[in-house]
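Researcher: Sequence recovery benchmark, item below. Answer with residues only.
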């Protein structure tokens, strides 16, 4: 049997929930959704390589891997933004669009539960499996 039968999808859609585990619904009455590139995609591999390269650069410059909390949040936001294909239209942050919007949301600690959800979702390969149509 061809092992590629078990390949995962490149993207998955995460419906966001609040810090109190309630679905986040936009003003339009629709769920707030983040479409993410999964761990089997080229985009995820590129984001992971970028994360590794930043760490290596830091080690070369400073000779240590200590980071401030702000640096850690910024780097996590950069990684998550690189893994994000899109936000649903009902997610806004100032007037930002595209990757700038993604980075801003992920870097804002007042809504840090969003970055946490996205990171957790990305870490679970089963979120990117092809859903059976016979179940």
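Model:
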């Amino acid at each position: 049997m061809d092992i590629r039968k078990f390949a995962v999808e490149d993207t998955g859609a995460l419906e966001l929930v609040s810090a109190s585990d309630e679905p986040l619904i936009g003003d339009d009455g629709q769920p707030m959704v983040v479409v993410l590139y999964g761990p089997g995609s080229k985009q995820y591999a590129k984001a992971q390589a970028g994360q590794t390269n930043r760490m290596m650069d830091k080690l070369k410059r400073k000779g240590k891997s200590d980071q401030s909390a702000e640096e850690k949040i910024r780097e996590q936001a950069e990684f998550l933004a690189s893994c994000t294909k899109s936000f649903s239209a009902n997610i806004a942050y100032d007037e930002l669009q595209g990757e700038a919007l993604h980075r801003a949301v992920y870097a804002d600690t007042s809504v840090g539960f969003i970055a946490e959800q996205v990171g957790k979702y990305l870490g679970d390969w089963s979120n990117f499996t092809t859903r059976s149509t016979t179940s």
